[in-house]
Amino acid sequence: MNLAELQHRFGDWLTDATGEDDKPSIPSQANAGFAVYCNNYRAQLIGCLEASYPQVARWIGADAFREAAIHHIGIHPPRSWTLDQYGVDFPDTVFALYPRNPDLYELAWIEWALAEAFVSADTTPLTTEALANVDWDAVTLTLTPSLRVHEATTTADDLWFALDTEAEVPEGEMLDQPGGFVIWRKGFRSQLKRVDAADYAALLALRSDGRFAAWCDVLVERLGEHHGIARAGTLLAEWIGAGIVVDVEIENQGSS
Amino acid sequence: MRTPPPSFSGYGLGLRKEHYRDFLDTDVPVDFVEVISENFMVDGGQPRDILRRVREKHPVALHGVSLSIGSSDGLDMAYLRRLKSLADDVQPLFVSDHLSWSRIAGFNSHDLLPLPYTEEALALVCRNIETAQDVLGRAMLFENPSSYVAFDGATMNEWDFLAEMSRRTGCGLLLDVNNVYVSANNHGFDAHAFLRGIPADRVRQVHLAGHTQGPGLLIDTHDHPVCDDVWALYATAMAVLGPVATMIERDDDIPPLPELLAELDTARSIGTRSADHREVA
After folding, report:
1. ipTM reported for the complex, 2 dp
2. What pLDDT score does A132 carry?
3. Tens digit of pLDDT for each residue in A39-67?
4. CATH number for the domain running over B11-276
5. pLDDT-based confidence at B107, cuts 50/70/90?
6. How many contacts, defined by CB atoms under 8 Å, are there between A and B?
7. A11 — contact with chain B (CB < 8 Å)?
8. Nearest chain A Cα to B151, which residue?
9. Does the structure show a pLDDT above 70 at B38?
10. Is the pLDDT of residue A256 over 80?
């Protein structure tokens, strides 16, 4: 058996092993040792999911979370070089297992996005000097690379804050009108905010086309000229202050 | 141009989250710290900031777990480029990983799986080491792993494999004394033969750690203090090697820092005493 064949058999066995007595068909000594590798593999992935989703685990309970983790491990063998990426598909597993609990899926999405934002690329806060004498028709806004957005249909953010502070956890509720969850990093802390449908649409529009003038057109179309332009000014000030907008690039001049 | 691994003697600890505050706010009496490379191979945020600040106070060794130097389908170049970026930023004392494999055909076990000690594996590992060292622009260190299975068809023992690997590639060795003890127990070889079989002049760093008794096997768990047998083996190692950078790894059931510093004092005492009575080959 050459090395490649040995490694393929070992890898296939790790993902498919049915129990401690199951051994790969690899000629070897100390066969009892295979159980150590099998146990390490599963225990490490379960531990990784527990570390990535502590609030989901707290919310559904340790036993239910373990069942969900085992199910996930069975259908999602790790492929990335970093264990930090292992839980990326876990919200989908949660949705598949709990299709009638959209708050749980959205709670899982929030946990994952907060963790991603925590180690996203650093940015420098935008200063007011950078905005002086700017020709806004020629400006493109840059959003923080830590920004993560997702449609909000439930009060999963309330669940997250209650679980995070170990307060009494409210019942998850459907929102009367869907909005958006916005997650980003300011300084070294990940931030979570739920916004209404209009602000969520404005953020999505800015993310797809960073030109300030085009973004104003979207808001004007939605809210009318007076309110649209006023709303653009308000949101821009808010997002610069929050660290969501981190740069202004002026055509032919580069970034601030 | 490849930088050879430097000679450095001193005593260090693995930097773990539980002790970040101690390392940032106080003068911890260590000569270097070692970090798990992958924990800091991120785009930014607090982890990189903490590493930068600790680096201002201490030399840092980068110790990886995901290079998978024994993968028969080659190295993950995206991983390697990220490691190089981190190394360029940190300017580490050493960059190390394990003589093992984790990844095959896109699947990553995230475990340090054993290699068969054959000519085929040796040639493959050496090719991969050459690639890694060329990308990084520096010689790496490779650690002997704890293992629980030995494959039929091996044509050499582990220490001869390590010696030849180092000779062919110019890489240094990271001797994990606890892993020698664990593997010697699990596979029935003589731990002292291992220590005398590796090329002493290639060893740049020593790891010490605790292990657990499993069902019929010792398991490398890093969740206990170093045991008496491993301290004794460390004394032998230091008599063979002479002064070399030594550190204690603790990854689970992590105690308050003073406990680890007391354990490090034991290492310092044994290391100094044993190196003074170095065996001359």
Report:
1. 0.94
2. 82
3. 999 999 999 999 999 999 999 999 999 99
4. 3.20.20.150
5. very high
6. 125
7. yes
8. A28
9. yes
10. no
Interface touch A30/B111, C-beta < 8 Å: no
The DSSP-derived string for chain B is --BPPPP---EEEE--GGGHHHHHHS----SEEEEEGGGG-SSSSHHHHHHHHHHHHS-EEEE-S---TT-TT---HHHHHHHHHHHHHH--S-EEEESSEEEETTEEEEEEE----SHHHHHHHHHHHHHHHHHHTB--EEEPPP-S-EETT--S-HHHHHHHHHHHH--EEEEEHHHHHHHHHHHT--HHHHHHHS-GGGEEEEEE---EE-SSSEE--S-SPPPHHHHHHHHHHHHHH-S-EEEE---SSPPPHHHHHHHHHHHHHHHHHHHHTPPP-
Chain B residues close to A26, C-beta within 8 Å: 151
Please determine, for residue A214, whether its predicted confidence score (pLDDT) is greater than 60: yes
pTM given for the model: 0.94
* A31 in contact with chain B, both atoms CB, cutoff 8 A: yes
Is B121's pLDDT higher than 90? Answer: yes
- Searching chain A, which residue's CA lies closest to the CA of residue B68? A81
The confidence score (pLDDT) of residue B245 equals 97
So what's the pLDDT on residue A18? 72
For the cut 80, the answer to whether the pLDDT of residue B281 exceeds it is no
A36 and B214 within 8 Å at the Cβ level: the answer is yes
Domain ranges (residues) in chain A? 1-100, 124-256
Rounded to 10°, the helix A212-223/A197-208 angle is: 150
Looking at residue A251, its pLDDT comes to: 74
CB contact under 8 A, B110 and A44: yes
Residues of B with CB below 8 A from A44's CB?
Answer: 110-111
Average pLDDT over residues B155-167: 98
CB-nearest to A11 from B109, B148, B186 is B109
Give the full edge-to-edge strand order of the sheet including A174-186.
A148-154, A174-186, A189-195
Residues in B touching A34 (Cβ below 8 Å): 148-149
By Cβ distance, the residue of A10, A30, A37 closest to B187 is A30
Asked if pLDDT for residue B247 goes beyond 60, the answer is: yes
Band (A187; pLDDT cuts 50, 70, 90): very high
Rounded distance between C-alpha atoms, residue B247 and residue A176, angstroms: 58
Chain B residue numbers touching A28 (CB-CB < 8 A): 149-152
Distance from CA of A150 to the nearest CA of B (A): 22
Tell me the shortest Cα–Cα distance from B88 to chain A, in angstroms. Answer: 17
C-beta atoms of B42 and A8 within 8 A: no
What is the residue type of A72? H
